[in-house]
Amino acid sequence: MTDLLKTFREHPDVNLSRQTVALIVENAAVLQVTDDVSCQQAVDVVAKITTIVSSLDIIRKAMTKPLDAQKKALIDAQNSICDPLNVQKGHLAKKVEIFLVSKALAQAAENKQTVDRERADLRTKNAGEIERLKLENAAARNELSSNDITLERMNAIIMAIHDRLKRLEELGDDTTQITEIDRTKSGKIRSSGAIGSATVQSAWGYTIDDLSAVPRQYLCVDRDAVSRAIASGVRAIPGLSITETMSAQIRSVR
After folding, report:
1. Residue 66 has what pLDDT?
2. Is the Cα dihedral 114, 119, 124, 126 positive or negative?
3. Lower CB count within 10 Å: N or C terminus of the chain?
4. How many CB atoms lie within 10 A of CB 167?
5. How far does CA 15 lie from the centroid of its chain?
6. Exposed, middle or buried by CB within 10 Å (0-12, 13-18, 19+), for 60?
7. What pTM was estimated for this model as a whole?
């Protein structure tokens, strides 16, 4: 590699003096484009830099071509060993996935039955407590209508009613309790060997059933289709502003 680098640096087209490169860079850095003359000067500098860079790139590719062939030979030798291994790795990994996913689905079905049963038990329990609290509040309101009630007792009853109403609101929304049941029943399926392990990972995805029913915020513009339409000459698309941008391309003319 050291000899190759030395050969590259000593190549006639590469052996530019540092002073020459520094001068080009310095001139390019300070050159201002304010009129036709300075614009032409800038174009020439860009073209010169492009020519130098392209020339060096061609030389580098020519010199490293034998290395590319060696690299390909090494990759082919590696692949001749790894390809059969990777094929069997893929087959076995698929078998493991089929087995573990089937096991996970069976566990999920069993967990669902347990969760559904515990949900029903929770709602039954909540329904009983809700009925009790409603009866207690009804009795408390009857007591409040009594003429013999003291101010201290009235305040205590009102506070108790408020607490029961708050509890009724909590029982009416059992989402948190049910979510906790779901979380405690979820678990990962794992298989561990002497040097490896496999775990079933779950990920949510989607398929499109009815595109017309999808909310607008989940839709996006087909940019490739729009670009193709513009390239074919379309200049007006409802909802889009089609604008033209311009840029300058500089090339060497010799």
Report:
1. 85
2. positive
3. C
4. 13
5. 48
6. middle
7. 0.49
Q: Rounded distance, CA 104 to CA 189, Å?
A: 6
pLDDT band at 113 (very low <50, low <70, confident <90, very high): confident
Which 3 state secondary structure label does DSSP give 240? strand
Query: Nearest to residue 167, comparing CAs of 128, 201, 206, 200?
Result: 128
**Does position 254 have pLDDT exceeding 60, yes or no?**
yes
Tokens of 93: 């990994």
Do 79 and 85 contact (CB within 8 A), yes or no? no
* Amino acid of residue 26: E
Length of the chain: 254
Write the CA distances from 47 to 22, 41, 156, 251, integer angstroms.
17, 10, 92, 5
Could you give the CA distance from residue 199 to residue 159 in angstroms, rounded to a whole number?
Answer: 53
Give the lowest-confidence range in 25-29, 57-61, 70-74, 95-99.
Answer: 57-61
With CA atoms as reference, report the closest residue to 104 among 37, 28, 171, 189: 189
Decide: residue 146, CB within 10 A, 0-12 exposed, 13-18 middle, 19+ buried: exposed
Are 128 and 100 contacting, i.e. CB atoms less than 8 angstroms apart? no
Average pLDDT, the chain: 82
Which residues are CB-contacts of 129 (< 8 A; sequence separation ≥ 6)? 167, 171
